[in-house]
Amino acid sequence: MKIWDVVIVGGGPIGIACGLEAKKKGLSYIILEKGCIVNSLYNYPLNMQFFSSSEKLEIDEIPFISIEAKPKRNEALEYYRRIVTSNNLNISLFEKVNSISKIDGYFNIVSEKSTYKSTNVIISTGFYDIPNRMNVPGEDLKKVTHYYKDPHFYSNQQVAVIGASNSAIDAALECYRKGAEVSLIIRGPEVGQRVKYWVRPDIINRIEEGSIKVYYSSVVKEITEDEIILNSPTGTISLKNDYVLALTGYMPNFSFLEKIGIQLSKDEKRLPQYNPETMETNIENLYLAGVICGGMETHKWFIENSRIHAKMIMNNIVKNKKSVTNQPVNLG
Question: Is the pTM of the predicted complex or chain greater than 0.85?
Answer without folding.
Answer: yes
